[in-house]
Amino acid sequence: MIIGLTGLIGSGKGAVSDILVAQGFKRLAFSDLIIEEVVRRGQEITRSTLVSVGNELRQKEGLDIWAKKIISLIKPHTDYVIEGFRSTAEVLALQQLPSFFLLGVSAGRLRRWKWIAERGRAGDPHTYEQFLIREKIDFLQSEAYGQQNALCFCMADRFIVNEGSFG
Predict the structure, then answer these.
(1) Which of the residues 5, 44, 97, 100 could staple to 13 if both were Cys, CB 3.0 to 4.6 A apart?
(2) How far apart are CA 43 and CA 150, in angstroms?
(3) Nearest 10 degrees: Cα torsion 112, 116, 118, 124
(4) CB 70, CB 30: distance < 8 Å
């Protein structure tokens, strides 16, 4: 089984992923591949750089470039959880695999902000205003090669609401 996770920043995708990994799933993340590319280029690893490089390669090499790279890492008879969908082309590419299932993870805005402020992850917004800007950028971009989180979320096979029962 291959479970993809999609949702807004701070919704609990990582918590769901951790639960699945504890059950024996292998974790794959689009961001890990993009970080490898940023490092290969000798650039600083920042949120802005990751978004820029991810979008650049989607524009130059095809909207599904990162999905193709993820698919190349998948081994038969292994369960996977995949995080970080940013393009509908990535979802469509993975949907070609017979065992793929996309799960949308959601949580309310104030709860997500609380969790983000508490986790203190590098690259996370430090103020509520920054959080709102980041949410808008991540969720509402319209460029085909840009961040299409809203459209990916709408493609989910099922949804779960995380209001504190996990993560």
Answers:
(1) 5
(2) 28
(3) -170
(4) yes
Interatomic CA distance for residues 128 and 100, integer angstroms: 35
Residues in the chain: 167
Report the SS3 class of residue 41: coil
Residue 132: alpha-carbon gap to chain centroid:
18
Confidence (pTM):
0.87
Taking only the tens place, the pLDDT of each residue in 80-126 is 999 989 889 999 999 999 999 999 999 989 998 998 888 877 778 88
All structural domains of the chain: 2-161 (3.40.50.300)
Q: Which residues contact 149 (CB under 8 A, 6 or more apart)?
A: 6, 7, 8, 85, 86, 138, 139
Phi and psi angles of residue 141, each rounded to the nearest 5 degrees, phi first: -70, 145
Map tokens 């890492």 to a residue: 73
Q: Cα(157)–Cα(50) distance, rounded to whole angstroms?
A: 27
